[in-house]
Amino acid sequence: MNYIIRGAKKQDMAQVLGLIKELAIFEKEPDAVEIEVKDLVNEGFGEQPLFHCFVAEVQNEIVGMALVYYRFSTWKGRSVHLEDLIVKESVRGTGVGNALYAEVLKYAKSKGVKRVEWVVLDWNTPAIKFYEKSGAKLLKDWYLVQMDEEGIDKFVSGL
Distance between CA 109 and CA 80 in Å, rounded? Predict the structure, then answer.
């Protein structure tokens, strides 16, 4: 399969959102996506972009994407967080995911970061095996902690 990996453009965001929705279905959260194309455009391509996105393109179709942003570690300094790496189901196993992953790591290296971090679902065995094979470490003694908007509101209103 002939594909190119490149930085995303504003006009790619509708297809990127389609991939995000496909991922939500894969992760058994089909109704969880609240953002719209305008959010991706505004937050990724404004004066102070909050993320950088790479896309895999085949004949003018976006078939994969990786979205990253900076984090700061009090132990290591600047790091990159890989929010999502998504490949359309129809092209999985063709090397697109590996190429996007490699692009993310090359990007991180070029930015001089000390670490790249991401989250993987414990039941996504193919992804876990892929990451471990690449040399990534799974930190099994850490919990992912989140507070949703309702929780934030409830906490703040109780102050």
Answer: 10
Going by the DSSP 8-state scheme, the letter that residue 91 receives in this structure is G
Query: Of the residues 69, 70, 101, 131, which is catalytic?
Result: 131
Cβ-contact 84, 41 below 8 angstroms = no
Q: In this predicted model, what pLDDT tens digit does every residue of 111-138 receive, in sequence order?
A: 999 999 999 999 999 999 999 999 999 9
Q: pLDDT digit string (tens) for 23-46?
A: 999 999 999 999 999 999 999 999
Which distant-in-sequence residues (6+ apart) come within 8 Å of 58 by Cβ? 1, 2, 3, 91
- 100-123 core/surface letters (b: 16 or more CB in 10 A; e: else): bbebbbebbeeeebeebebeeeee
Write the DSSP symbol of residue 70.
E
131 is catalytic: yes
How would you classify the pairing of strands 116-117 and 77-87? parallel
Q: Is the dihedral of CA 90, 127, 69, 36 positive or negative?
A: positive
